[in-house]
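Give me the fold.
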Amino acid sequence: MAPEPAELEARMAAEAPALRDWLRRACGPEGDDVAQEALLRALQSRASFDPGRELGPWLRTIALHVLADLRRERARLETELDASTLPARDAADRLAEGEQLERALARLAPLERDIVLRFHGRGDSVREIARALHMPEGTVKSHLHRSRRKLAGLGGDA
């Protein structure tokens, strides 16, 4: 049974300073932002809170999820920024890399090449590839693993 909104809000208001302090120690200045988002998510998810349990651990768990989400988003943005600030390669470099990749892929067995191209080229999931090729997912994973090892072993010889 979910607690009454006013009761939960009062308990959260009492617990908020401890949560903020804990987050400031754990992650510095961004702790206040994480605390605010955690408290908001807690209010949105109040139906999942068991009023017979301690509120602090529940709020800290939510805060850890918020922090993980924030760091994932930051890493994604940094990756996009890094990619957008890299110097553009000229067409000759891209062509040479493409030819090298084609030679490396040609050394794979047809099934391995198909799986690698579906996974890395088209972005198909292991499950989608397994269904399309009528084989177990574990077999697809094995082919991917072996193919990657072969490609890595080719190095600059391709």
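The first helix runs from residue 5 to 27.
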